[in-house]
Amino acid sequence: LFVFLFLAQSLFAQTDSTEALFKNAKYSYTQFDIGYCGIATNDNLLNGITFQFFGIVLNNRFSIALGMDQTWNKGVTILPYPPPLQRYNLTYLNLEYLVKPQKIFNISFPMKICAANAGYSQGVGGLTEKFFVFAPGMNIFLNLFKGMSLGAGGNYRFASGKFYWGDETDYSNYSVYAFLRFKCDTRAMQKKAMEQQTQYWQNMNPPQQ
What band does 125 get if pLDDT is binned at 50, 70 and 90? Predict the structure, then answer.
């Protein structure tokens, strides 16, 4: 296996003319989101939170991130049986194309690939469906500060799986979002910390005359 990987790497290294999406990818900054999430079903709009807890931006235009959406219905519905969905949760990989994020107003096109579960009770037990979701969407941003943006957007969920309860429109439907996006240039922070540390040691050990 290692011999094969070595030969493959040697072969690919010689084909500099090959075009690839991440061939010249360079780290730009990290980002995370937190805010409101609304997931529509056939009968309800389930309200909850969205939390994209880790994202890496490459070349200032492409983001790869992990996150989750968790929504629920505050009321308890028993009839009809089975009742309307009471909760809908997504754990996702988000591939997002950023269009000029440095502009005060900018947009992006996210694609969420999700492992999902939805149920008819507030707790973990009860009737629960597990399935996959693909959710292309669009966001619009207002840059409030250099490191913080206000975002809003939506997507359409295409659910894939075998559903034992309810109608497919309970699972494939639209979602809406309103959130804050925080950006952090970890490399710049690390560089600044190293410079401060170097300056500290230089002050503690001045050159002798």
Answer: low
Distance CA 137, CA 172 (A): 14
Between CA 160 and CA 172 the distance in angstroms is: 8
Distance between alpha carbon 109 and the CA centroid of its chain, in Å?
Answer: 11
User: Is pTM beyond 0.85 here?
Assistant: no
What tens digit of pLDDT does each residue of 7-49 get?
A: 445 445 545 565 665 667 788 899 999 999 999 988 889 999 9
Cα-based angle 79, 50, 182 (whole degrees, multiple of 5): 165
DSSP labels for 82-103? SPPP-EEEEEEEEEEEEE-TTS
Six-digit token string for 153: 């957007």
Measured between alpha carbons, how far is residue 72 from residues 48, 68, 76, 96, 145 in Å?
A: 6, 14, 10, 26, 32
